[in-house]
Amino acid sequence: MPKPSNQALLSVRNLRIEFPNRRGILVAVDDISFDIAPGEILGVVGESGAGKSLTGAAIIGLLEPPGRIARGEIILEGERIDHLPYEELRKIRGRRIGAIFQDPLTSLNPLYSVGRQLIETIQTHLPLNEREARVRALELLEEVGIPGAEERIDHYPHQFSGGMRQRVVIALALCAEPRLIIADEPTTALDVSIQAQIISLLKGLCHEHGTAVMLVTHDMGVIAEAADRVAVMYSGRIAEIGPVQEVVRTAKHPYTHGLMGSIPHIGHHVDQLTQIEGSMPRLQEIPTGCPFNPRCIQVMDRCLVERPDLQGVDQSEVACHLFDEAGLAAGAGE
Amino acid sequence: MIAFLVRRLLQAIAVMAVVALCAFFMFQFVGDPVNQMVAEDATDEDREYLREQLGLNDPIPVQFGKFALNAAQGNFGVSYQHKRAVSTLILERMPATLELAVTAAILAALLGVPMGVYTGLRRDGFASKVIMTLSLIGISLPTFLIGILLIYLFAVILGWLPSFGRGEVVQVGAWESNFLSASGLKSIILPAITLALFQMTFIMRLIRSEMLEVLRTDFIKFARARGLSNRAVNYGHALKNTLVPVITIIGLQLGSLIAFAIITETVFQWPGMGQLFLQAVQVVDIPIMSAYLILIAFFFVIINLIVDMLYYVVDPRLRVDQPTGGGHG
Ligand SMILES: Nc1ncnc2c1ncn2[C@@H]1O[C@H](COP(=O)(O)OP(=O)(O)O)[C@@H](O)[C@H]1O
Ligand code: SF4
Ligand SMILES: [Mg+2]
Question: What's the gap in Å between A320 CA and the centre of ligand 2?
């Protein structure tokens, strides 16, 4: 179990997300913990349905009912934020945690010019008047690489291409210089040729501003390209988390192994991987013990009954019984 | 913009031509106007003379040409029943109907829009559920029944408001208005509510469902993720995006308010065009019937044109059509 480090920017502790329904309770995210350091890019990968988006939504306090945080803590810069009332959390959103969503074509309000949407966001968080906010909006548009910002600022979303719109969305997320950005599949909806541009833009900007990013993606190539560390999610749990080089080169968890079967490049989706037989179980059908056990080629008896916890192996942490001996050998105790 | 307007105008003219054709054929097929106009014991010569006078012996296309030309100039002939120019009769009755319809439309919008927004935002609230249940009544009760219930309650039992007529009207130029006297104002309340009730519930339910739809969109989620205040998200972003369908419906509803004022006018003996039309139907007074048909179509067409232009104001996607690259809007 990772300990909360005091220099973490964001610390997620034992987060559990549930959907109560008539038949009972669905557990979509089950006891996950991870930290993001200031300026760090944490990649989060996993098949669709693994719980990546829900984790992101929980952090910014926008889980949609009946979804709810049933247990755990979310700590931003030492302050617990998961219990804050709506209005308090609203002030954090955009100001201290920015967000970027998957589809730039639908993220912007079609009825307002991009300038208006930028100015509105800037004025929500910073004490600037209309003119100053417009100046800042222009700077932002230039920063995200929109040519002719002076003129483009008064254009409407439909007048921009998909890639350009995602740049506008990034500008909107950066408006108030948040310390953390949750980017939920920021390139999935884009043309492959543009994906690399957007990722390097995001990476560059966050590097310059010291902004940390939780970069949710399907795409191992994006992870290899941009992330410092990577968390692999499976069935609402973290299977493995560690420095990107280590996870990519020397994957420990059998699931990660399968993911890394081929050299990742941008445009390479985990859902397309066929090395691993079967598919991720639905929420109602998650097996006891290790959730990966029906698909695992190294499955052991205890995998069927005992749930593996994250344990440190090298620089990484892995939730797999294969490493229990190593854990004991390293003196972690029982 | 200009091309769009021209296209719309041409469409409007085409629609009006078709309506005029229908109105014209009413003369051809519904009874013989000559029978309506001559005395019972008129001779065949009298009838033939009248036919010639009315141009009824001309070829049909010529007759239609004359009819359309006259109609375009507001000349719809003489009422069989009243023996006066139809245009004068209608103009006398128009203010009553228009004032009633516009009052009802304003009432419906002023109450319907906020209630729709409220029930859309507080979908599970107690008040929303009460409003939604009541609105079912508004939608399902027939207009005449609502009118009679209102009359019974406010005119008969409470005696607060008059049960029929326009009360005292004040002449402003050629326009007779209800709004300038106490009794006129009192008189318009019940009929306006009666006429507005259905539209109000309709608008409310429409806005509610549009709001629910828009609140689920990505750009609303993103607006929340940007930390915008609830007010900015709900009104600035969500409500504005419901406007296009809402403008359409309110526009069309105004048209039908004018058209379907007939029932309300009958219940309240409101001396408007609808009443004139009903009386005309009873005696097959075709000039009035065809003029009314054309006029209602004309209102619809005009309202549609205005609605189309409002789209332009609300939705930039229609306003500017170059997709990417520079260029001046
Ligand atoms: N409103 C909901 N009700 C029930 N289950 C939900 C709801 N929203 C999401 N889920 C479930 O939660 C799981 C995780 O979803 P999500 O975080 O969107 O996955 P990811 O982003 O990794 O693809 C999925 O199995 C999904 O079916
Ligand atoms: S715990 Fe067992 S089933 Fe799960 S990944 Fe490890 S070896 Fe496979
Ligand atoms: Mg997702």
Answer: 5
Q: How far is the CA of B252 from the centre of ligand 1 (A)?
A: 41
- Name chain B contacts of A158, Cβ cutoff 8 Å: 316-317, 323
Which part of chain A is CATH 3.40.50.300? 10-96+176-333
Write out the two tokens for B251. Answer: 């526009």
The residue ranges of every structural domain in chain B are: 2-72, 86-318
Question: Are the CB atoms for A46 and A102 separated by under 8 Å?
Answer: no
Q: Determine if ligand 1 sits within 6 Å of the CB of residue A291.
A: no
Å from CA of A50 to ligand 3 middle: 8
With beta carbons under 8 A apart, name residues in chain A contacting B324.
159-161, 164
Residue in B225, B236, B326 closest to A151 by CB: B326
Q: Would you call B226 an interface residue with chain A, using a CB distance cutoff of 8 Å?
A: yes
Give the integer Cα–Cα distance in Å for A47 and A29: 14
| Tokens at B207, concatenated | 């806005």
Name the residue among A43, A66, A40 with its Cα closest to residue A56: A43
Contacts of A161 in chain B (CB under 8 A): 323-324
pTM here is: 0.81
Superfamily of structural domain A10-96+176-333: P-loop containing nucleotide triphosphate hydrolases (3.40.50.300)
CATH 3.30.70.100 fits B86-318, yes or no: no
Sheet holding A212-216, edge to edge: A97-100, A180-184, A212-216, A41-45, A229-234, A237-243, A316-318, A311-313
Taking the CA of residue A303 as reference, the ligand 2 atom at the shortest distance is 2
CA A180 to chain centre: 11
The pLDDT tens digits along chain B (329 residues) read 677 788 888 988 899 999 998 888 877 776 666 776 666 777 788 878 877 777 777 788 888 888 888 888 888 888 888 888 999 999 999 999 999 999 998 999 899 989 999 999 988 888 888 888 888 887 888 888 888 888 888 888 888 888 888 888 888 887 888 888 888 888 888 999 999 988 899 889 999 999 999 999 999 999 999 999 999 999 999 999 988 778 888 887 888 888 878 888 988 889 999 999 998 988 888 889 889 999 989 988 888 888 888 887 888 887 755 444 433 33
Residues by chain with Cβ below 5 Å of ion ligand 3: A 53
Residue of B nearest to A160 (CA): B324
On whether any CB of chain B is under 8 Å from the CB of A158, the answer is: yes
Number of Cβ within 10 Å of residue B73's Cβ equals 9
Q: Rounded to an integer, what distance in angstroms lies between the CA atom of residue A274 and that of residue A284?
A: 24
Respond yes or no on whether ipTM tops 0.90. Answer: no
